[in-house]
Amino acid sequence: MQEIVLDFTWLDEAAGKDLPLPHYTSAYASGMDVAAALSEPLALAPGAIALVPSGFAVAIPPGFELQVRPRSGLAIKHGITVVNAPGTIDADYRGEIKVGLINLGKTEYRIQRGDRIAQLVLAPVARAQIRPVAQLDTTSRGSGGFGHSGR
Hints:
5% helix, mainly beta, 1 helix, 11 strands, single chain, four-stranded antiparallel beta sheet
């Protein structure tokens, strides 16, 4: 398993003392859990969207991105998910990591300081070079879209 170094900084070191660093919760986990850096609890009503602070920033090496993904337990049990899943944090961004959450559940959900709200997955990035052509090559699928392959 390849390890890449991410430089990390608390934006307010004193305010981050009670929060964990992003971390993997098992030996083969692909995502690091991220905790909410809220100064007070946040009530997320059904259908509501909130941008939840993490309290930190990172330096992602060129050629990589951080993907912000939902935590499966929050999504399945409470309907709490990342509104733009997966969110992308580009290698040249140096601001605070924030997580856009949406409540797709039927009841209000309260987020407390330190609650694990999302996962960060470090992923390699390939950049495309766009090449205009007169016609694309053909495939057996062709232009068949959503639902093309049946049930």
